Amino acid sequence: MQKWALEMKRAGIPVALVPTMGALHQGHYSLIRSARRTVGEQGVIVVSIYINPMQFGACEDLTSYPRNLKEDLAGCRREGVDLVFAPRDKAMYANCPGQAHSTVVIESDISRTMEGASRPEHFKGVTTVVCKLFMLTLPEFAVFGAKDYQQAAVIRRMAGNLNIPVKISVAPTVREKDGLAMSSRNIHLKPIQRQQAKVLHESIQEARKLLHGHQKHEINVRQLKKNIEKHIQRYDEARLDYLEFFDPNTFKTRNMIRTGTHMALAVYFGKTRLIDNGRL
After folding, report:
1. Are 111 and 150 in contact (CB under 8 A)?
2. Active-site residue flag, 28
3. Lowest pLDDT segment from 19-28, 62-71, 95-104
4. Could you read off the pLDDT of 183-194 as tens digits, one per residue?
5. Superfamily of domain 2-171
């Protein structure tokens, strides 16, 4: 992979990387199309397909995470992807003789809240594997999805802090007709859970409605959280993990919510955990 990437560098051909964990859907394909618009027909697109064990906690869904490489490869061909990089664990985390894979990458500021607080080891795994993917594919551009808003921000911070010469772009979230953000994990939802999963997007819309309907276009965070939590509790399959309102640049939480504040939430439906976010 790295040898091919170096050849692209020497030839002056721009490379765009779309990192994925497979089980590709229309959300992923929108990232591929965004990458193509970025590099043009003369550039090349690399899609990585790798379910990174380092970013899963001990009780999380690593073994049950959906896998279908054959369909993923067919989808990449349809979308005009130039190269698919699908390494195995022993290739990504190969041990030196007598030594463990002991080097990790940690972002210690904006990764501490929300996903970082709910899944303490998650971002260490994300930043480590994405840094390795950047070193292996040597892209000028990398495309991520806005559904994973905090993840994209953490990776952008990592790339900037470590002087990795890659431009990070974030493509809009692709949604189902009822507003549910497309996710590989949606396949695990039971019919009643799938029906109720629209509550994530509904909650963002409800927060916008409450804020913009307020006389001062400003609302206390406790009041807004109380209203949104009450809305989520209407759905008996939904169990709220977190609900946060924060500055989109610093990720600092806000006491007073106003236009431009960002909202993020995670909700469990049985063992399936879904996330979403949006600007108010």
Report:
1. yes
2. yes
3. 95-104
4. 999 999 999 999
5. HUPs (3.40.50.620)
